[in-house]
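Sharing a chain and its predicted structure for anyone who wants a worked example. Both blocks are below, sequence first, tokens second.
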Amino acid sequence: MAHNIADLFEHAVDAAPENLALKVGDRAVTYAELEADANRLAHYLQAQGVGAGDHVAIYAKNSIEHVVATLAIVKIRATTINVNYRYVESELDYIFDNADVVALIHERSYAPLVAKCWPKHEKLGVAVVLDDALDPADRSDFSSYGGVHYDEAMAGQSAERDFGERSPDDIHIIYTGGTTGFPKGVMWRHEDFWRVLGGGIDFYTGALMEEYDQSKQATDPRMVTFPLSPLMHGGAQAGLLMHLFAGHLTILEPKFDPVRTWEIIDREKVQLIFMTGDAMARPLIEAYEAGGFDGSSLFAISSSAAIFSPPVKARWMAAFPNAVFTDSVGSTETGFGGMGMQDPNNISTDGPVVALGPGSVVLDEDNKILDMESNVGRTGRLARGGSVPVGYYKDPVKSAATFIEVDGDRYSVPGDFARIEEGGRVTLLGRGSNCVNTGGEKVYPEEVEMAVKGHPAVYDVLVVGIPDEKYGQAVAAVVELREGSSLELEELREYLREFLSGYKLPRSLTIVDRIPRNATGKAQYPRAKELAMAGFAAKAAVVDPTSV
């Protein structure tokens, strides 16, 4: 057997077919039922000519059918392409073209937009249409491009598992969120994806798992897990698959709502939640503090992919003193990079402090691996060796820049910077492409954002660099205020002096109604920069850095 996503899921099915696998709202399916539906859809796709290596896009919110589609695609050795359901026409055109999509599985409410794009893409030939997870009564027409409703596609199809052998070399693609440019398709071998994102390695010890180790857990007492992010995000996708491989029950919701999240946690006795930093953590803790919820079933609370700021983290730890809190670092290009258990008595104000995971290292400016013991306090780029992606789909130039050879071994180096701490740990400082160079000094936006979020008037913030005639770039803060609050630049700067060096203080402040983030809560820095530039032009609120 192969270390393949489809095989690993099927092992769990065979171990505990009657276990509940998924629950969305009042609907729940067992592992056997999920398997049967995935087989039916896989057979339909095969009948339409979709086969090994073909790219099938999923354009849908979280639902049981979304998971069925994912499993059906990998069962026939085709490749899933994750599509952001907030895309406009030009963005959808880009992903269909760049990913060479031949088949599309989408929710019905997106049919009008698909109809506009479809004629422009000759490779597109198959469309399966799902009922909308939030509006099942939607009756948008999909006849113009030959779409077939999910129920019709499934009718009469075999539920048998008869797909032949698969390979650990099958390719799994995750398109990045595109926070700093166009999304890029990161190509993973199935086995490598499993090793770094699907539980195929012990994240603490580095010990490699055997093929059936996870499925053997399916007959043990199981967890109820709740990834809060959309499955179009690689982190949520990985969390879902990891727990399916081990026979756990995963709760999904098509839309994040903090009150409904707590209702589900209490009703289903959820034990583990995954969230995307403050974008989810802040509204959740505010809803909890408002009263009416228990939450006592939670024993593990994990955040990744965005800042989980100290003031918000402290509120969570006060509310759940017996829970385990973890910050995880990594990226679509590296997978799991490291994890840190959070201590309520020692919350870092600089960034997540984590122990590096297996294969993770810090590189200097010459791409040499830094010794962790003798370089405490030094900053370098995070890199991961071992199981790394094949590269970016159809982008050899960016692939060569990101996936490099160091001392004869291949490493993924997406550009995240970290400072080496004692005990083999690092403080994550942020993506180098967002770094602000002001008068030769490097300022990492995430560090400034962490400090700004401590101000009582601030609800959310992004920090960017804007052009500065004298210093090249100036630090600019784009802030969403708490309701009824106000804030002036000098007030913010005075508050920050306790936490940041003078050159890191914002010289421009732009107040906005809402911070630009995508559906997963990840920052949209290009849009934030546009807002900062517009705010600067309107107010010219720049402080002379020589005054600090």
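Comments welcome. Residues 541-548 have pLDDT under 50 and may be disordered.
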